[in-house]
Amino acid sequence: MSHAATHDQHDDHHGAPKNFFQRWCMSTNHKDIGTLYLIFALTMFFIGGSFAMVIRAELFKPGLQLVQPYFFNEMTTLHALVMIFGAIMPAFVGLGNWMIPLMVGAPDMALPRMNNLSFWILPFAFTLLLSTLFMPGGSAAGGWTMLPPLSLQSSSLAYTVFAIHLMGISSIMGAINIIATILNMRAPGMDLLKMPVFVWSWLITAFLLIAVMPVLAGAVTMLLTDKYFGTNFFNPGGGGDPVLYQHIFWFFGHPEVYIMILPAFGIISEVIPTFSRKPIFGYKAMVFAIASIAFLSFIVWAHHMFTVGLPLGADIFFMYATMLIAVPTGVKVFNWVSTMWGGSMTFETPMLFAISFVILFTIGGFSGLMLAMVPADFQYHDTYFVVAHFHYVLVTGALFAIISATYYWLPKWTGRMYSEFWGKVHFWNSVIWVNVLFFPQHFLGLAGMPRRVPDYNVAFANFNMISSIGGFLFGASQLIFLGVLIHCVFFSKKRAADRVWEGAKGLEWTVPSPAPHHTFDVPPVIHEGDLAHGHVND
Amino acid sequence: MTSGGIRRSFAAWAALALASFGGAAHAEPGPWQLNMTRGVTTWSQVPYDLNNITLGVCAGIGILVFGAMFIAMFRFRKSRGVVAETWSHNTTLEIVWTTIPVIILITLAYLATGGLTSWANTTGSQMTVKITGYQWKWRYDYISYLGKPINNVGFMSKLDALSNATRQLDSGMDPYAVKVGNENTYLRNVDKPLVVPVDTKIRFVITGGDVIHSWWVPQFGWKVDAIPGIVNAAWTDIKTPGTYRGQCGLLCGQDHGFMPIVVVAKSKADFAKWLATQEAQAAALAAAPVTQTAELPAPPAAGKQG
Amino acid sequence: MGQQHDAYFVPAKSYWPFVAAVVMFTTVFGAAHWLNAEPGDTGFGKTVLTIGFVGVLAMFFGWFRSVIRESLAGSYNSQVDTSFRMGMMWFIFSEVMFFGAFFGALFYIRMFSVPWLGGEGRGVLTHEFLWSHYAASWGADGGNGPQHVGGAFHTVAAWGLPLLNTLILLSSSVTVTIAHHALRAGHRGKILVFLGLTVLLGALFLNFQAHEYIEAYRELNLTLHSGVYGATFFLLTGFHGLHVTLGTIMLAVIWFRVLKGHFNKDHHFGFEAVAWYWHFVDVVWLALFMFVYIL
Ligand code: HEA
Ligand code: HEA
Ligand code: CUA
Ligand SMILES: [Cu+2]
């Protein structure tokens, strides 16, 4: 093969094109596409967050004050769908897009055009999803799990289902791209077991995505045919079973929640060693733990279904399998702590978010373990205890990791330092208010408040009000985040060094800040100090 | 504050904490309640104990892990001039902290499994009640009691009128004013409660009429989904007479939050009397020419939910 | 594999991905609108759907044309080739999981939900209280559930058309493999013959399947509406049929590309990708034949 010819192909070899449409809509550049993903995710986070604000405002005190119950349910449903598929997942894909090629010494993603398509599907998919809000029958309001027969009553089901199909296609293509990049585009010397943990976590996450997104597509397709084509998958009268949907959905749904946490584990495993100035403790165990969690995630789905009346043996099997996940997750937590132990720590904003991640995610994990116990789950199930659980793992878990990663790599992206002071203000506000927001929800759940209700008995009034106040302030704190980002990108005067953080290891810190439009046109020669793990010659 | 004042207020707080944490202090959820209810049935002790034990275990582990973290954050900071060490693994340690959680988990799993078989076992029950969830009310049909079938005793049970009026958007009514005696029953009261005897093993057969609902009375210690076309079973034996309230436990459309459950547990004698009146009424109704089927299961209200 | 790339390749900018997103959106928006159409609908949804669908075809044509051009210009090095291969492999894996959802549904229905409705296992009470007249069975009586949704029907006999179709698909796998060997050996005539045969066999399969569907609807009263039996039958075979259609079209495209001399002995990823896809479709059919028709 002639390689000389290959060079001619990139016309934009030395910088980004000036034309807006060419640069952003026709991009084959992993950095630009990564940026698009991140901006999109942030937008969706604000939209999903506004829906949450409606929820919290209505729940501020007993009695209906603001919205009709049906609208409330629309908010709950769309809040979750937007946050999961619009904010958290695209944010991780954006981070992967930006950082994986830099971390493994690749010039770009393996399949750059498909990469662009993966992104551009998303805005359209969410237009489709959110447009249902303005339709006469309203949007889907059966919860993000869309359980039939309830979800079949939605008059805009087709729009929702197709939007999910589109998101699925986007995620699958994104995941294929990441796998191909990691397996095929690494620079010579970047062996699999020398890759940064973040890259490992994404490799495994991508596998999960390809394995379960099609299953979700299948599940919602059956909803579609049950509603519009007269099939009877979920109708016992015709031999079907509504519980069948739940099995298929959660076969997707449980791995899905790990899809939202494994890249976060990867991020934390980058940030903590950097600011502890000490290599990650037990690198191989960390990788192995991620793989074990991914494996186990396929055999625990029915822990969301303990109350549907499964055979006893199934309940017990799924309980045991679920509890097992605490072991590899524990290994990760302990290894993070050990990484900090004996280090030389500083506490810049990324590190603060990472530390609070470890603590608060673990609290969320603990409540997860409590939920895994079948008898106790008979009580917890579908109460605010579950809501508290998953917000601890999703907000103080996934979201905090994303915020941490943003602060961590922002100087590399923009070439400027963000304001450390305002970063810390953002952190302290977030960490305090998020606990005010979600901790009382444990109590509400234990006391017996069901989830997905727009109104409640006065016994639940106190904690709901506290939670709502926390919610408003947590939401408002995110405006600080927005401010810090805008300031850093457009106004900051402070230039970032190439190796932004003193203790940072890895190839991404060997390229200039801001990272040039094209990096690694030829495979880099890796030096000892560049590797985050392992040695150059072994 | 004087030291005595501190001690006193500490004692007061501790008492409050204990009261709200002990759960048993209230039969129904109260303001500031922190923990799960202990419940009033044989089974309900199981989730309650398990909840407390697991919570304790997690708190213990949390203290150790977070404690170690805080010590690390305090001792190993650059500002104290610490130089980072370079080690990055320790096989013994790693084995230890894989094994210990396994042991803890096995213990917890053992505790969680015990009792489940008895929960799943509905044989030997002395009474059967069929529960059907509708959008947005419950239907109760008495099937049999003490080995005898019961005919035509069954009724719909839906949100009480006062709560229903109060809960409308912009009703201008005060949720705090919805009371039965001293108890605030806003959204937790119905027009016609389910009446059952105490000290009786009652089997519930639970199904749904339109979409999936979930029948949940926290005092009984479980919830079970009411799935259209499928019947689930569960049982309970209530120890103390009283009124026990719960709510639909699974999103079932717009008024999911407004289909409470109220169970009145009577002494066996009182229950027998109540049942006799109901049967008499049913018989009278059956004898009369059937002009309208007032209390028969209404077809599910179709409408926009979803 | 990755050894000898002294320079990386990054493809030029392209508007096709963006176009693809637009036409995909147009298609599903049209489809959703059409499905939701009220009685007095003007057919807006159908129009949009058609536009979107034509757009998708045009997009595929345009996108692939540019890729083929670049490939012919020798722009793609071995690393790009490997990326394409991985892409195709993982895409097929995702398809496997998609079918997995429907097979999973089939197994669940046959092993659990139908027997339970008939009173087995944990279905005792369900049977007693709701469906006491129902004797669970699969196939003609019982496969459509306790309410006999869709009315009495007959099943398609496995040893008629389906068997023929199995043989057809199996031989098409053989012919495509012969064509592949011929390609490696550089016998163009042989490739064209055997690849052409594969296309014809694919078309034949589709033809028979269409017959089968028509017969099912007209004579057997086996429809999508025939309870879970009809639902699983048509969704599984339908999605498979869709994949055969796609595969056949792809094979036909490859046939033209062979005719135009696009491939050589060691550079024919396009051919291989389609061959893999064809084998995948074949394997799914075998599973279908086994679990849908025979058992
Ligand atoms: C990022 C997302 C995420 C993550 C990581 C998890 C992690 C876990 N989840 Fe969670 N979960 C959700 C998101 C997530 N979950 C969501 C969204 C729902 C609700 C869905 C819906 O209904 O809408 C849910 C619901 C849910 C349920 C169903 C509840 C119900 O509806 O009744 C259960 C039940 O088992 C459960 C369990 C667990 C467990 C055991 C873990 C474990 O992985 C946690 C493991 C971690 C630890 C245990 C802490 C660290 C470990 C140590 C320090 C070691 C030592 C510890 C011990 C030995 C105890 N989750
Ligand atoms: C990754 C996912 C994710 C994230 C990040 C969040 C974030 C938040 N969630 Fe959500 N949530 C889910 C996933 C997530 N959630 C899921 C899966 C469900 C279950 C749905 C179901 O039952 O089907 C759920 C359900 C759920 C409920 C239960 C609803 C119900 O059962 O009826 C509640 C209630 O408090 C809630 C609240 C919040 C709040 C306050 C935030 C906050 O963290 C949001 C903060 C962000 C902002 C507020 C936006 C940014 C700021 C502005 C727009 C500025 C303007 C605002 C102010 C000035 C106040 N969420
Ligand atoms: Cu009925 Cu919720
Ligand atoms: Cu789960």
Word description of this protein:
The complex is a heterotrimer of chains A (538), B (306) and C (295). Chain A has 17 helices and no strands. With 538 residues, chain A is mainly alpha-helical. In chain A, helix 5 packs antiparallel against helix 6. Chain A is globular, with a radius of gyration of 23 Å. In chain B, a hairpin with a 2-residue loop joins strand 5 (179-180) and strand 6. Chain B is elongated and about 95 Å long. Chain B folds into two domains: 36-80 and 90-121, Helix Hairpins, CATH 1.10.287; 127-176 and 183-284, Sandwich (Immunoglobulin-like). Chain B is an alpha+beta fold. In chain B, helix 2 (45-75) runs antiparallel to helix 3. Chain C is mainly α. In chain C, helix 5 packs antiparallel against helix 8 (269-294) and helix 6 runs antiparallel to helix 7. The model of chain C is unreliable at 1-5 (pLDDT under 50). Classes of the chains: A mainly alpha (538), B alpha+beta (306), C mainly alpha (295). Chains in contact: A-B, A-C, B-C. At the A-B interface, helix 4, helix 10, helix 11, helix 12 and helix 13 of A face helix 2, helix 3, helix 4, strand 10 and strand 12 of B. Dinuclear copper ion (CUA) is lined by residues 133, 136, 213, 248, 250-252, 256, 259 of chain B.
Secondary structure topology:
The complex is a heterotrimer of chains A (538), B (306) and C (295).
Chain A: H1 4-9, H2 20-25, H3 30-58, H4 69-104, H5 112-131, H6 157-184, H7 197-228, H8 242-259, H9 262-276, H10 283-296, H11 312-324, H12 326-340, H13 349-372, H14 374-380, H15 384-414, H16 420-447, H17 461-491
Chain B: H1 3-22, H2 45-75, H3 91-113, H4 116-120, E1 127-134, E2 137-145, E3 148-149, E4 154-157, H5 161-166, E5 179-180, E6 183-184, E7 194-197, E8 202-208, E9 213-217, E10 222-226, E11 232-236, E12 242-248, E13 260-266, H6 268-287
Parallel strand pairs in B: 1-8, 7-13
Antiparallel strand pairs in B: 1-2, 2-3, 2-4, 5-6, 8-11, 9-10, 9-12, 12-13
Chain C: H1 16-35, H2 44-72, H3 78-117, H4 124-129, H5 161-185, H6 188-220, H7 227-259, H8 269-294
Helix pairs in contact in C: 1-2, 3-7, 3-8, 5-6, 5-8, 6-7, 7-8
Bound molecules: heme-A (2 copies), dinuclear copper ion and copper (II) ion.
